[in-house]
Structures are given as C-alpha cells and as structure tokens.
Amino acid sequence: MSLSMKLIYVLIALQVLDAVTTIIALRKGATESNKLLNKIFAKIGVLPGLLITKLAVACFLLYFREIFQNPITLVIPLVAYTWVVFNNFKVIKKRNG
Predict the structure, then answer these.
(1) d(Cα 53, Cα 90) in Å, to the nearest integer?
(2) Tell me: the pLDDT tens digits for 46-93?
(3) What span, in angstroms and rounded, lies between the C-alpha atoms of 91 and 85?
(4) What span, in angstroms and rounded, lies between the C-alpha atoms of 65 and 53?
(5) What is the pTM of this model?
(6) What is 57-77 written as a DSSP string?
C-alpha cells in the first residue's frame, strides 16, 4: 500500500474522530463553529448531518485518490483535521470541569 493511501486512511480516521468528538462536545453544551455544518444540523439533525458530510469526505478521498498520489497534497488536510480533533478534545475536557 502506498504512503498516500495510508495517509488517506488516516484522514478518514480523523473524520470519524471529528464526528465522535463533535457529538460528545455538543452533548456537553458546546456549539459547532462551522457555519455550514450548523445549517446542515438545523435542517437534518446533528447525527445525520455528520454522517452525510463525513461519508461524503471519505468517498471523495477514495474516489479521487489518484489526485493524492503525491503525499504532500494531504499534509494540509491532515494538519487541519488533527487540529480540529485536538480542539474538540480540549473543548470536551474544559466542559468536564
């Protein structure tokens, strides 16, 4: 398996972690800072909204994996979603007191 495919799987795992930690944070009273996701949540709910958006990202990454043959193309999304998940954990910890 190529390095790019491994990184795509890591990015998909980060999507799952983002969804799980977002649900936990929202249940603890946090608010979603992504305005687009807020609109989606208002229309169809948090869980369906997260499932659809995260599944869409995973499908995009897998379908267009040829675009990401150079691992450097995945650095920005990997850093960004690592930060998002880390931030979600910080929010959860803060809300736990």
Answers:
(1) 23
(2) 999 999 999 999 999 999 999 988 999 999 999 999 999 999 999 999
(3) 10
(4) 18
(5) 0.90
(6) HHHHHHHTGGGG-SGGGGHHH
53 touches 37 (CB < 8 A): yes
Q: What is Dmax (Cα atoms) for the chain?
A: 45
State how far the Cα of 56 lies from the Cα of 34, in Å rounded to an integer: 16
> For residues 76 and 73, what is the distance between their CA atoms, to the nearest angstrom?
7
Structure token pair of residue 13 = 């795992």
Range of the domain at 61: 3-96
The length of the chain in residues reads 97
Q: How many domains does the chain have?
A: 1
